[in-house]
Amino acid sequence: MSRILTSILMIGSIGYFAYRYRFRIINLLLASGWLRKLAVGSILSLPGVKNKMMQTVFGGPSDW
């Protein structure tokens, strides 16, 4: 029982600190060139994300 409670407490603590320092963690991860390329490539491969971003950046008809 105490092992399960300890596991839940540790996961909760890690989640709390990851949420609290999320922007520092993201900046640290995106400082690496290949991780940044991987993140941008994976986000742009999602359906609709690239089209919405291109419409926002370069203008054009807005459908929402």
Commentary on this structure:
With 64 residues, the chain is an all-alpha fold. The protein has one domain. 78% of the residues lie in helices and 0% in strands. The protein contains 4 helices and no strands. The longest helix is centred in the first third of the chain and has 19 residues. The chain is elongated. The mean pLDDT is 87.
Can I get a quick summary?
This protein is mainly α. It has helices at 2-20, 22-30, 33-44, 49-58.
Walk me through the topology:
Layout: H1 2-20, H2 22-30, H3 33-44, H4 49-58
Give descriptors for this structure.
64 residues; mainly alpha; 0% strand; elongated; Na+/H+ antiporter
Shape: elongated
Sheet with the most strands, sense and barrel status: none
How many DSSP H or I helices? Answer: 4
Termini separation comes to: 51 Å
Oligomeric assembly: single chain
Question: What is the number of domains?
Answer: 1
Low-pLDDT runs of 5+ residues are none
How much helix is in the residues? over 70%
Structural class: mainly alpha
Amount of beta strand: under 5%
| Rg | 19 Å
Mean pLDDT: 87
What is the number of E strands?
Answer: 0
Order of helices and strands: HHHH
Protein name: Na+/H+ antiporter
